[in-house]
Amino acid sequence: MIQQEKIIKKYVDGIKNHLHLPLNMKARIISDLATDIHARMEKGETIEEILTVMGTPKEVAAGFNTELAEYTRSKGSPWRFLFLGGAIFTGVFLIFSIISFLAQPELAYGIIGSADGPTSIYVGSRAVLPALWVVVPFFIGCLTTYLLLKWQKNGTKKQYTAVMILSIVALAFFTGDLIRESLSSYLETKDIIQTYEGNIGTAILLQAMYAIILPSFWLPIVTLIVSIRKRKNAVA
Is residue 220 a contact partner of residue 139, using CB atoms and an 8 Å limit? Predict the structure, then answer.
């Protein structure tokens, strides 16, 4: 019996892989097929006879795809490629920025001049990392938007859960690194000038007011809300 169950599972899984239908319809078809196979076995037919009559998984799936052509699964919105391109571009840019940053030597300081002549101080240059609180959340936001547009209404609960987690990570990174950078900038300048009248709270608030208009902020929020709503109606 265990061997027969394995054969049935492999057969219906093969049919499922060839169905181009919404996930809820695929689940219903697979369940009905498995029930029908078990019912015929109880009547005395062998598993080999049943599967021979039914045909190969590809043939069975093709029949359902033709019969239910009006419900054929969408291949995803063409807009998804725009966000895929954004994710690829941002990812490549970030990788090269990090490599360039790590490859450069530390800032070099030197003094030119002599004791009885004009003296000047020079500072060597080093590659500067882009604002990570802008780049990283934007990369994640583009990636999750691409996935949502690709799945449309056909994602599973696990897939939408993954998008939810990625969106939360993007927002957490955005908030945490924004505060870190604001605090770092404030501490570096407070001894030179009274930035924002010496108020770190004002510095962070003004930085945040600028930040919330960026796609790096609202893109993960949109994907988080959409993934939560779609997950409620998704199949397991």
Answer: no
Q: Would you tell me the crossing angle of helices 132-151 and 215-233 to the nearest 10 degrees?
A: 30
- Across the chain, mean pLDDT equals 80
List Cβ neighbours of 167 (8 Å cut-off, separation of 6 or more). Answer: 140, 141, 144, 220, 221, 223, 224, 227
pLDDT at residue 113, rounded to an integer:
47
Q: Residue 83 phi/psi, 5° resolution?
A: -75, -30
- Please tell me the number of Cα atoms within 13 Å of 79 on its side-chain side: 8
The letter for the amino acid at 23 is L
| pLDDT tier for residue 232 given thresholds of 50, 70 and 90 | confident
* pLDDT band (50, 70, 90) for residue 186: low
In one-letter notation, the amino acid at residue 91 is: G
Give the model's confidence band at 236: pLDDT under 50 very low, under 70 low, under 90 confident, else very high.
low
Helices (H), the chain: 2-18, 23-42, 47-54, 57-67, 80-103, 132-151, 157-189, 200-211, 215-233
**Calpha distance 201→186 (Å, rounded):** 10
